[in-house]
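Please review this one.

:::
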Amino acid sequence: MAYPTVSAPYGLKPINLIGGQVYAGSTRLLPITTSAVSYNTAIYFGDVVKQVNTGTIEVEAGTTTVSAQGVVGIFMGCTYTNPATKQKVFQQYWPGYASGVTDAEAYVVDDPDVLFKVAAVSSGTTIAFYGQTVVGTNAALVQNSGSSTTGDSAVAILGSSFAATASLPIRVIDVVPDTANSSGNFCEFICKFNAPYVVSASTTTAAGSPLVYTTTTTSTMTGGHMYLNPTGV
């Protein structure tokens, strides 16, 4: 049977773990809302999410970099009490509520070793093909809006961004061979979240007479996967 045509990006689809580790598809339930916190932004199946200092999760909107605390994983659906029906629902995506929902929880693949399949685009949702040589490089995310009809994400990786730049959030691990075109290029890739990277800042101060200049360099970890980032939220 022929491989299905990849007509549009679909977010990040977990498939495995690095190093041949056993993968059971496990998720962690993380709160989206609480009695003190509401969240009125949609989150779609396959979106990248981060954990914020309220202990809840939000969409990660970064492209060439992600939030300083890093990402926590991939959104795989949610559960909450519908304020209109008062019934517990299990849903492909979180539609967002300004208020009235206090018990929303997300199913998140939070393993920092997760490998996921993702489509490459030239821009927006335009699928594009790239060669085997991009394996081992890093890539930026394209934060397309998901579908409230299907509940699916439309996040992709940007083909023009493939580079050795440490701050890019995605590492390309392999190609999806079945997507090869007649030129031997590919439109889907196996990827993982990149490691946090170091940012250094130097401050020069002067004191004494005559003046003595002292330069202090401070290095911090930023980005990457939250569980590998020692700075926290």
